[in-house]
Fold this protein.
Amino acid sequence: MIRIKNVFVALLALSAFLLPGALSVPQADAASPMVIRFASLAPPGSAFMKVMKAWNRSLKEGTEGRVELRFYSGGSQGDERDFIRKVRAGQMDAAGVSTTGLGMVARPVLVLASPGLITEYEQLERTRAALNERFVKLFESNGFVLLNWGEAGKNRLFSMEPFEKPEDLKKLRPWAWKDDPVFAEFVNVIGANPVRVGAPEVYGGLQTRMLDTVPVSALAAVAMQWYTRLNYMAKQNFGIIIGGSVIKKEKFYALSEHDQKVLLETSERAARAGDKLARRDDQRAYDSLIKRGITLVDTSPHKAAWDAAAAQTRKNLTGRLYSKSLLEAVEEVVR
């Protein structure tokens, strides 16, 4: 049986391939490598950890052994909230997290998870290119360096019960991750009551019918075995599951300029490889679920209602999570 806690942000940890950067400070003693302690929920032996280990080999080679990663995988350091707390306390140095975890460091980044805003990969790529510097500054001001972006498939609704339009959710019990204020607000706008529990409790919640509807990618639904309890899947997605990696500023700036450059180059290659893997496997999982007999729900006849709920959610969160100017900047890019 797959361990739910270990698997969850394993998928979101596609982004956990780390490290672009800036500036320089004295180089570590060549006889004593600079070790970056990196926390991840990705299970040991998973495809993602294999990619990360390959990245670590290229990092060590490029820095001539001066810098290396030490992975704490499989949720051994807790969940995303624990990761961020431990990095701040100096117990860890870096972590791979979902947008929710990134939002614990820089709240405005949650704009990227706003429903109906970024729904296509091309839009996501444009947003990364256009606004990366703005987000980097947000993390810097909060004591972190934003290392890189990642993704884990298209976010869509799954349910045990039939649905087509937003008001159908009023009769259901949709899950909202307890640390995610975005989807919870979306559910509130619709008029439904979100079930606020952690990711590890979702599978059990589906078994007991404490909850019956989840926002998740096909990739995650299959990997976490949630699909075994779900009967309906939306054809349309309302977002893309975005993640990223962060490192404490002091740790990053303790590297030489050359070693920072190596971190930047190797992490970019690994992160983009992770994106390709996520996109491919999410589509394969989507196709597989259809073949397994899950009922595909076409929500397009009610597009206006879904769009209105998403727009109202973004409006409600403006000023609470992110500024109007940031939301407008993202909207301009994705148009």
In short: The first strand starts at residue 34 and ends at 39. Residues 4-334 form a domain with the D-Maltodextrin-Binding Protein; domain 2 fold (CATH 3.40.190.170). The chain has one domain: 4-334. Residues 93 and 128 are 24 Å apart (CA to CA).
